């Protein structure tokens, strides 16, 4: 079979299995993201750590920095493990399962350990969660790129995240009103994380129904140190991708503000279970509804436009919180942050898929994700230091500066990747 014939046969199989794989990814993403959003939203985990630590902003920053550090260390390892494989789904099941066990550990620590010991267990669990998350995203994005054509990714991402947002909002409402307690308790948070584990585990089981095609070519197998050593040359060969990596890392530094939005607002409106539920619902519903807009915009104009639009919205919401901490103003701010975070997340992930040849995709994902998560590891730690020494306002201003720098670099040096094809 000639190379061209093999490629045509591969594309034909992708189209033939697209309806099934679209539905499988939709359901897997809805269940998985519902659970992981309960962990990653800037409400429950920061407030949980603040409670366990007795009110330490530094502990909040440290825990989230370790989570991001874990995500920094493993994408290149994951890229090395799957780059030469014809099928990547089995590796995804392994890494995804390990990631879910870390969420279970968040719950069990609160149920069974003394509060001071639970703090260390939670921090360790978040670090391990980051390690496996860094591996999982490379595997799952490689799988998605194989089975979902680029013209359908915006639609899938938007609809998947829309459904996940609805279920997350429902679980957050139930958790805030019936599980957390007044005032919120360690056991209440543990129940929420136990629900997260159940939902994400169900989604992972559903992913086993994917029909993964065998590509006509894969990258040659390399040792990890050889692959890492090739990164500088790889980046020199593709300056647009290099600038994208830097722009994404700069904007990711804006995450330094995420855990402190709720703490800053809580200083004036309180951190009751009902308040946490309302703000989490505002955050998730905004992300939910915005997905339909971001997805449609991406399919029509590309993910670069979504990237820039989401960053501008993120900047506006951050500055708005500095202007008012009235209850309704805080809700509006969390709506803006939720929509911005969702747009940035789907744009950053999907732009990476569009820069080069399919065989190089795991390496591109490894480079882009490691760089972004390195910034994500530094960001909350720097945010915690700034919050402790200079106050929350300095964190928000620094985050705004990084977001602006990343957006400017993308505007000036990174054209729409789809124009390359």
TrEMBL record:
Pfam families: MFS_1 (PF07690). InterPro entries: MFS, MFS_dom, MFS_trans_sf, Sugar_transport-like. Residues 191-421 form the Major facilitator superfamily (MFS) profile domain. The chain crosses the membrane at residues 47-69, 89-112, 118-140, 161-180, 186-210, 245-264, 276-298, 305-322, 328-347, 367-389, 395-412. Gene3D superfamilies: MFS general substrate transporter like domains. Keywords: Membrane, Transmembrane, Transmembrane helix. PANTHER family: INTEGRAL MEMBRANE TRANSPORT PROTEIN-RELATED, MAJOR FACILITATOR SUPERFAMILY MFS_1. This is MFS transporter. It comes from Candidatus Litorirhabdus singularis.
């Amino acid at each position: 079979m000639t190379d061209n014939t093999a490629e045509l046969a591969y594309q034909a199989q992708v189209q033939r299995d697209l309806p099934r794989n679209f539905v499988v990814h939709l359901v897997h993403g809805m269940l998985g993201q519902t659970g992981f959003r309960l962990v990653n939203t800037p409400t429950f985990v920061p407030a949980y750590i603040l409670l366990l630590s007795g009110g330490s902003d530094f502990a909040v920053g440290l825990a989230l920095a370790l989570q991001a550090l874990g995500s920094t260390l493993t994408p290149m390892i994951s890229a090395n493990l799957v780059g030469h494989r014809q099928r990547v789904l089995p590796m995804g099941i392994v890494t995804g399962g390990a990631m879910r066990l870390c969420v279970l550990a968040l719950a069990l620590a609160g149920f069974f350990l003394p509060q001071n010991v639970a703090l260390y267990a939670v921090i360790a669990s978040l670090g391990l969660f980051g390690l496996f998350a860094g591996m999982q995203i490379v595997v799952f994005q490689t799988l998605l790129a194989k089975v979902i054509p680029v013209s359908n990714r915006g639609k899938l991402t938007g609809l998947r995240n829309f459904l996940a947002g609805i279920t997350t909002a429902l679980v957050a409402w139930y958790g805030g009103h019936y599980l957390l307690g007044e005032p919120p308790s360690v056991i209440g948070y543990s129940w929420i994380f136990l629900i997260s584990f159940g939902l994400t585990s169900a989604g992972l089981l559903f992913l086993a129904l994917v029909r993964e095609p065998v590509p006509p070519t894969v990258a040659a197998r390399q040792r990890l140190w050889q692959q890492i050593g090739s990164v500088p040359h790889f980046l020199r060969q593709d300056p647009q991708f290099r600038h994208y990596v830097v722009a994404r890392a700069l904007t990711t530094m804006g995450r330094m503000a995420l855990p402190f939005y709720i703490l800053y607002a809580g200083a004036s409106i309180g951190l009751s279970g009902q308040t946490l539920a309302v703000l989490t619902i505002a955050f998730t519903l905004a992300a939910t509804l915005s997905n339909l807009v971001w997805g449609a915009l991406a399919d029509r104009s590309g993910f670069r436009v979504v990237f820039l639009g989401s960053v501008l919205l993120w900047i506006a919401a951050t500055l708005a919180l500095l202007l008012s901490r009235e209850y309704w103003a805080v809700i509006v701010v969390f709506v803006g942050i939720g929509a911005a975070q969702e747009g940035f997340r789907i744009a950053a992930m999907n732009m990476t898929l569009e820069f080069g040849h399919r065989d190089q995709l795991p390496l591109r994902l490894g480079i882009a994700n490691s760089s972004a998560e390195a910034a994500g590891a530094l960001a909350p730690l720097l945010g915690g230091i700034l919050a402790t020494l200079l106050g929350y306002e300095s964190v928000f201003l620094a985050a705004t500066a990084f977001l602006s720098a990343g957006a400017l670099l993308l505007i000036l040096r990174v054209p729409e990747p789809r124009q390359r094809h």
